[in-house]
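can u do me a favor
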């Protein structure tokens, strides 16, 4: 595949039976759990950039503004929204990886998603996995629950996933999975739940949960010790803030009691239950003049 103007290649890597892992900053990234996870994987796996999508026709720059950075103290550089493909060689794993990291675009979602699936098709990608994080009624003191879903019945059975039955607003993740289905590429959606009462705090706990679930799904070994240490620090800092407010502390105690009453993993909330809870939460935020959040969908 050559450059199309919108899709720009720096080189073409040789990859062995690759899978593609994608995440997007923005609506699909509550508590930055998904972008933290892919950022961690990019550093750990030493992924190399080989292509990107030109942001010019996909972003409203009044809404998603580029940033000005000073280089060497005096040279001004404009950093545009990035959507980048990275090649990862994993010689001891069943597959190599294409890691896509980006920002949810403002415009032309179908074309944008088709560019991603065109790369997947060109490299013979066997599976696309998207990572997302959503705001939900979960405590920060417990491991972040992760739901894994797909729409393909065979994939649901083979990988022991949930069948997605979500209906409601979607983000670019949902459009990308639809593009994968139209291109005949199997796809899986992983979502980690993030405490809504600390939605602005980056959640390494959600990132760790996504990486652990991804490792299990793809039969990989991922050393998440760094995320474990960051999660412990996160829990301590949030606990200190929560303990300073009696009402919030009581609410977190209630959430902890709910989790502790769960007898086994099969009783954890389903993706649809989390979606319903988040839809309620989003409605309340809109009524109160609140901001955006992510919702769980396929």
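np, heres the sequence
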């Amino acid at each position: 595949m050559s450059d199309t103007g919108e899709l720009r290649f720096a080189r073409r890597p040789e990859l062995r039976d690759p899978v593609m892992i994608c995440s997007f900053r923005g609506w699909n990234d509550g508590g930055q759990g998904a972008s933290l996870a892919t950022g961690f994987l990019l550093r750990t796996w030493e992924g190399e950039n080989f292509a990107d999508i030109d942001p010019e026709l996909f972003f409203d720059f009044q809404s998603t503004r580029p940033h000005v950075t000073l280089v060497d103290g005096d040279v001004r550089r404009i950093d545009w929204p990035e959507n980048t493909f990275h090649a990862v060689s994993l010689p001891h794993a069943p597959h190599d990886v294409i890691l896509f990291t980006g920002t949810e675009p403002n415009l032309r979602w179908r074309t944008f998603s088709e560019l991603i699936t065109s790369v997947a098709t060109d490299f013979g990608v066997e599976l696309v996995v998207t990572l997302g994080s959503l705001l939900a009624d979960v405590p920060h003191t417990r491991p972040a629950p992760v739901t894994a879903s797909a729409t393909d019945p065979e994939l649901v059975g083979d990988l022991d996933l949930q069948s997605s039955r979500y209906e409601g607003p979607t983000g670019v993740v949902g459009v990308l999975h639809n593009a994968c289905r139209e291109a005949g590429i199997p796809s899986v959606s992983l979502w980690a739940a993030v405490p809504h009462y600390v939605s602005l705090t980056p959640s390494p706990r959600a990132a760790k949960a996504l990486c652990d679930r991804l490792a299990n799904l793809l039969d990989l070994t991922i050393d998440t010790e760094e995320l474990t240490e960051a999660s412990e620090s996160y829990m301590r800092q949030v606990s200190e803030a929560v303990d300073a407010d009696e009402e919030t502390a009581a609410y977190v105690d209630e959430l902890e009691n709910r989790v502790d009453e769960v007898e086994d993993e099969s009783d954890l909330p389903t993706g649809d239950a989390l979606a319903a809870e988040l839809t309620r939460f989003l409605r309340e935020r809109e009524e109160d003049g609140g901001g955006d959040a992510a919702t769980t969908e396929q």
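The two ends are 28 Å apart (CA to CA). hope that helps!!
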